[in-house]
Amino acid sequence: MQHATGDIGGRLRSAREERGLTLRQVANRTKLSLGALQAIERNEFTQLPAGLFRKAYVRMLAAELGLDAGALARDYSARFEPPATDETPPTPSLTTFSHRLLGSTTAAKLSAALAAWSRAWLGLRPASSDSPSKQV
Description:
Layout: H1 8-18, H2 23-30, H3 34-41, H4 52-64, H5 69-80, H6 94-102, H7 104-124
Helix pairs in contact: 4-5, 6-7
């Protein structure tokens, strides 16, 4: 039985059935739960742990059933993962972190206090001489 490219679960179920394997046997071999296998065969990927796990489960199951794991993982990504964007999320700065953690007023006061302290500390440091001292 041939399934559409997007029907990842149907392709995996067909491969399992063609090999005469039960869900329990595949669960024992792959160490995936019966619930996870059933969700995959129904294309209910939101029932699985999020992130890389979903594609890893598809890849592992495909390999166990003798399918091209890379191709099936790419098909899964194309159908079920959000498209990649060219935008790189901004790296949070210390100021952003401190504003979230402490609130904007407290963070501003803390930043001002640290700046004043560092200026005072730098101003109180003894001047270093240009020539290193020689010990005899």
